[in-house]
Here is the input.
Amino acid sequence: MSKVCQLTGKRPIVGNNVSHSNRKTKRRFLPNLQKKRFFIPETNQWVTLKLCTSAMRNISKLGIYEYLQRLEKEGVDTGVILEQGS
Here is the structure.
């Protein structure tokens, strides 16, 4: 399972553990990913996304539909189809 946010594209980065004696060993910094289910009332559908918490904050600020529309305008492939439901 890849550790990549579906909306922001955040992925693990590489750095060093630095000991008290200043020895350096490689490590990975993983994004804080959560699996979350959202209901989009405009399209009347449920979507499950694997997101980082910063994306969840943006969604709670803007709303899921507005946030997905903005990403779609920027050309980001979110994997969510925003068709109007009945």
